[in-house]
Amino acid sequence: MLSTMQDVPLTVTRILVHGALVHGRSQVTTWTGEGEPRRRSFRDIGIRAVQLANALRDELGVAPDDRVATLMWNNAEHVEAYFAIPAMGAVLHTLNLRLPAEQLTWIVNHAADRVILVNGTLLPMLAPLLPRLESVEHLVVVGPGDTSVLDGCRPTVHEYESLLADRPRRYDWPELDERQAAAMCYTSGTTGDPKGVVYSHRSIYLHSMQVNMGESFSLSDRDTTLPIVPMFHVNAWGIPHAAFMTGINMLMTDRFLQPAAIAEMIEAERPTHAAAVPTIWQGLLDELDARPRDVSSVRQVIIGGSACPPSLMRDFQERHGIEVCHAWGMTETSPLGTTSHPPAGAEGDEAWAYRFTQGRFPASVEPRLIGPSGEVMPWDGESAGELEVRGPWIAGAYFGGAGAEPLTPEDKFHDGWLRTGDVGVISPDGYLTLTDRAKDVIKSGGEWISSVELENHLMAHPDVAEAAVVAVPDEKWGERPLATVVLREGASVDYATLRVFLSERVARWQVPERWTIVPAVPKTSVGKFDKKVIRRQYADGQLDVTLL
Amino acid sequence: MLSTMQDVPLTVTRILVHGALVHGRSQVTTWTGEGEPRRRSFRDIGIRAVQLANALRDELGVAPDDRVATLMWNNAEHVEAYFAIPAMGAVLHTLNLRLPAEQLTWIVNHAADRVILVNGTLLPMLAPLLPRLESVEHLVVVGPGDTSVLDGCRPTVHEYESLLADRPRRYDWPELDERQAAAMCYTSGTTGDPKGVVYSHRSIYLHSMQVNMGESFSLSDRDTTLPIVPMFHVNAWGIPHAAFMTGINMLMTDRFLQPAAIAEMIEAERPTHAAAVPTIWQGLLDELDARPRDVSSVRQVIIGGSACPPSLMRDFQERHGIEVCHAWGMTETSPLGTTSHPPAGAEGDEAWAYRFTQGRFPASVEPRLIGPSGEVMPWDGESAGELEVRGPWIAGAYFGGAGAEPLTPEDKFHDGWLRTGDVGVISPDGYLTLTDRAKDVIKSGGEWISSVELENHLMAHPDVAEAAVVAVPDEKWGERPLATVVLREGASVDYATLRVFLSERVARWQVPERWTIVPAVPKTSVGKFDKKVIRRQYADGQLDVTLL
Fold first, then answer.
1. What is the reported pTM?
2. Would you call B417 a catalytic residue per the annotation?
3. Where is the AMP-binding enzyme C-terminal domain (chains A, B) (predicted)?
């Protein structure tokens, strides 16, 4: 039997209208590098979003489902685009301005973007790509920049403020199905083509509620949040949408991402909350050591994107009184998965142990661990499995390209669940600890060995500078670990000693038989161990391997 | 274009499973009057909910969509029923144990309840009704009570603990449509038959997220909430569901609702949060004055159900350091409508002024005010209109009775919006102030006059004990106010003086011409002015009215 509740869709439009009306006095403050920041109220952003929607429809001919891309920093105009485009029934496509030209070109063409809103300062980057951006009909230049680089380009060029000027302040927002596409973001995976995740109005709405909840970021109109995480990176973790839902003020970096600029804007604008990847925080910590500034306004910092070194978390807490909260998520998860708030009652070292985990899942993200033989693993804090997640803001497929069917590659989706590619354990009280990437786990005789765990133990040995462990084929066990070790300068240690060292720390059957000493571990462009290369070197017989 | 997000339904089942697994250590503590309270973990409640579902299906034959009623106090077993019944696809029907026998009988028959779970202490109340409860096949007696009153009754009688004992600890919860009925609650309106509101899994899920959000109750697993508001009263304002979503501990009153018992349980169990109607708080305040106790654990108290006297709010804040937060809602709104947190930056008297309003709406509850001529009124803090609301947890119809079509009476639903029957104004920053009930407003010459406002001004006159103002027909203006005044003992005052007194406080055209002094204002059974009776007395010429 159906309920008698109203059938009202959850839409970005509703968030926009609510924010502009009920939280009209809340502000988006955009840092300008020098002089006064630009301050714009939610009310004014609401009005300008209406004008932008009018301009996109009436002047540029944007129709429902058209992809409208942004190549922009975090600023007030980007917030306007964030709301205007989905509310009018089109699809906001945020472009990652850090991508190599080839990938960016591929992505724009794959998404079939018709319009790009681009910050003027990014034109030198975009202009050379234009000849190959086949679907793009219009460029809208936002803010100052050298437009001469656009001379003779095919798309029609518009200036943002001129486009908005004198547009009507009303727009009859269409009635939307909450499952309709609202925004999209491509993952920049290390293998294969980038993959587009298409967020729905429903998924964004629900995710925004979660961001505001106490167990996640716990924000209200008393807060000012500083999302250093870019708006092209999974919707700045949902913060702009969450802000319009409850009136959270936003401090926007624009292009000023250097540690000194961040420290300066924190001191001047006194945000209570911030969110960024670990490297930004490390940079800020170093900056504050070199040139102390008052960052005492900040109550909580969310760190995501990759695991945060425990020392960094402790430093912020102990030296600056800032609570650092780990969060785990990915483009496919909108991104809120876990946050590492310790449970009630945990104090001191126990609390720290919880904070070093990836954290706990909200009700809307259901996790399961799939073990070596495809079985669901228990939450005992010991049984490892690949993390799979399910929920209303988790991707169920990828965008198949303009007009094509959604893609559900087997290595990414499993029986309605998203395969995260992360391997870990879950404690009896639901805390996730990630131990490895699924592709790097060693599948030995129906059991899993974490490469990361072996590496961490090896690198704790005083004579070892670096260690990378990879899976290599083994006739009896399927796979076995190969330990690749870089010795510290002047050190000498034999394999047998390292084996004993490991045996004291992990189960006997996990200890590698294959060992090699190398001058350096091959690295990817972002400095991670490149295990593909090691596996290839092993297969090609390029490594001098000792079998013990 | 559709998004590629997973299509995962929002269900009570998910809340149950999440709460029992991730927040398994959180507790429901049930007060027992004497001795230790009963403490039960969310994990154990989860297991017992599974056992209850097995028992209801296998022993009692409960099928999807069957209505299973509860006639119970706030306690752990009621929480088990709250989750087991909707999760198995049946409909939880909470019965109001304060209703007169006639209404309760009508409601059970209208809902066609097949099973009633009843606390043993309530059997003396239920037993006499049983012969007329035609659809009820099973009674499940929960907790101690005199079951001899059931001798010879038609329904089969079960004992709750025996029914659960040795049941399987697994249940394959059905896949549910999120719009499916999960729970129902009848309004006890002053006119006409009671009306059933049927909540969906979706509406309960979304409402639970909202309850947890900072702008509403702002709760986490660090909190213990004391919902004094009964679980048969709009799902205890959504608190049990919200608790399982984020691990909030619950302190349950069971049948111990006397101020002394409440004060005792607060001192002993140290809740951080509580929710109840104003009369409970007034009683508690008086109790604390008479016998001081330590209630310092309580951070916030939510007051709803009817407007809270400002003096009570100030007393709690100033004498006990407890923040009292006004909330407005109704059975048809799940019930979270507004909460009266002042906006950021408001301090002192300005903050108090905001706290005395009904508060601000969340994004999911869209309000509009409909004025005297059916037009939408502006949010200017002055233009009054009937409040209409729209959103995913707002009723769109009433339950039409077993097997019948939903009911959408014109005076309750308007063009997809719920007519609340409340008249008020909304400030430019979205704060609602209710001024009157729509049926009591005086529609004079296309403008509205608030009866409550005139009454409040009149009652502020030193010689006036009580005053009721009602609309009476007027040839020229449609309606005009009639002022019915009760003088204080020994006082004498003439109508002209009262007219002048009012003229100094409201617009001239709002001042009544028709006056009458009466010995007492007629009251309803719950002590409210019975304006129907006054209007009838006027129409019948029973009042001695002076026209000035």
1. 0.94
2. no
3. 453-528
Q: Point out the residue among B4, B364, B396 whose CB comes nearest to the CB of A198.
A: B4
**Residue B4 DSSP class:** -
Residues A445, A460: Cα–Cα separation, whole Å: 27
Cα–Cα distance measured from residue A339 to residue A326, given in angstroms and rounded to the nearest whole number: 6
- CA–CA separation, B174 and A537 (whole Å): 51
Alpha helices in A336-388 (DSSP H): 348-356
* Residue A489 structure tokens: 């300068």
Q: How far apart are CA A295 and CA A285, in angstroms?
A: 11
Q: How far apart are CA A174 and CA A172, in angstroms?
A: 6
Look at residue B6 in the predicted model and tell me its pLDDT: 97
Q: Can you tell me whether residue B267 is helix, strand or coil?
A: helix
Residue A317 buriedness (CB in 10 A; 0-12 / 13-18 / 19+): middle
The distance of Cα A24 from the centroid of its chain, to the nearest Å, equals 29
Inspect the interface and report whether the beta carbons of A220 and B215 lie closer than 8 Å: yes
Residues 241-260 of A with CB under 8 A from B: 245-247
* DSSP codes, A147-193: GGGGTT-SSEEEEHHHHHTT--S---PPP--TTBEEEEEEE--SSSS
Write out pLDDT tens, residues A344-385. Answer: 999 999 999 999 999 999 999 999 999 988 999 999 999 999
CB distance from B212 to chain A under 8 Å? yes
**3 state SS of A506:** coil
Helices (H), B218-343: 234-237, 239-246, 259-269, 278-290, 310-320
The answer to whether the beta carbons of residues A27 and A40 sit under 8 Å apart is yes
* Rg of the Cα atoms in chain B: 25
The arithmetic mean of pLDDT across residues B247-271, rounded, is 97
Tokens representing residue B518 in the block: 């009466």
Verify whether residue B332 is a known catalytic residue: yes
Is A209 an interface residue toward B (CB < 8 Å)? yes
Q: What is the pLDDT of residues B448-472, one digit of tens each?
A: 899 988 998 999 899 999 999 999 9
| Side chain identity at residue A223, one-letter code | D
Spatial distance between the Cα atoms of B67 and B90, rounded to a whole number of angstroms: 6
Question: What structural domains and CATH numbers belong to chain A?
Answer: 9-31+38-200 (3.40.50.12780), 441-547 (3.30.300.30)
DSSP A142: E
d(CA B543, CA B362): 46
Distance of CA B506 to the CA centre of its chain: 32
Closest CA to A266 of A246, A281, A245, A244: A281
Reported confidence tier of residue A529, pLDDT bands at 50, 70, 90:
confident
Catalytic (active site) residue B448 = yes
pLDDT range class, residue A388, cuts 50, 70, 90? very high
